[in-house]
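wait is this the right file?? whatever heres the structure
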């Protein structure tokens, strides 16, 4: 919720292939985090600090999801879109709005 919208691609590891580069660029449009299935994730920021901030929170979100899933998928309660958007907007401004 803190990192905003994310993209997902099936990454083959072939950045020398133009189609792969185009797919990554397309999926990153309007996003700063992309998950490369079976390869991890990549974060883009306007500064190194922003990219590090996104990477830190993405990693923590992944850890939280793994922990939550250990309790069983049927026990997970997902927040609604409104709550997600409010949290993201608040986080974009450092918690001050």
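ok assuming it is, sequence goes like this
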């Amino acid at each position: 919720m803190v990192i905003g919208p994310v993209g997902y691609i099936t990454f083959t590891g072939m950045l020398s292939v133009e189609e792969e580069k185009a797919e990554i660029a397309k999926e990153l449009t309007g996003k700063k985090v992309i998950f490369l299935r079976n390869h991890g994730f990549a974060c883009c920021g306007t500064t190194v600090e922003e990219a590090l901030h996104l990477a830190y929170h993405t990693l923590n979100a992944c850890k939280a999801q793994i922990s939550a899933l250990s309790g069983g998928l049927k026990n997970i309660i997902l927040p609604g879109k409104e709550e997600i958007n409010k949290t993201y907007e608040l986080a974009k401004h450092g918690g001050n709005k």
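The first helix runs from residue 18 to 28. so i think its the right one actually
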